Amino acid sequence: METTIQEVWTLFRETDRRFQATDKLLSQKFQETDRKFQETDRKFQETDRKFQETEKLLALKSQETNNEIQRVSANVDKLTGKWGRFVEGLVEPGVLRLFRDRGIEIGKIFQRVKGHKKGDTMEIDILGVNHEYVVLVEVKSTLGSDDVKDHLRRLGRFKNFFPEYADRKVLGAVAGIVIEENVGRFAYRQGLFVIAQSGDAVKILNDESFRPKTW
User: Can you tell me the distance from the alpha carbon of 145 to that of 143, in angstroms, rounded to the nearest whole number?
Assistant: First the structure.
């Protein structure tokens, strides 16, 4: 069966119509895709903006938290310092009497004495002095084993920081309102006097057979 010219033109027109329809459809699809890309980009930008706002907020909160921590820390330091001075004030008046009862007549007492050597500093809570002895008293509200160890090291280095007492016998004592379990016994074995609260005053816990270590 022969195809006429008219049929060929009809076929061309139909093909062209379909191409145009396809092109229109593709154009619509491209436009829709472009719209979605633009919407996605807008959402990404919005998300990025929110992330930046969140980051700024977190930075602000972090700074506020740091400021609050510093404020609380400063208040704690002040309170700790006041409490430390209170405890030292409780112990200091009894030092003369306590050591006199042990045959050591202390002539002078100093609080919070500092010595410096090559950029390092040593601080003594209570320092009792006479012509023969120097007594170093470390005072804590709660006395732990680490405090005792620190004081032993302090006693060993004392004359390096205070050479003016090089000719004296150095004695050590630790004092606490609360003394952790076995800490008093540990300090006793290291040759230290152990001072504890007793009512409104303080007392030495060491028995009469105790012999202090000298440095």
Answer: 7
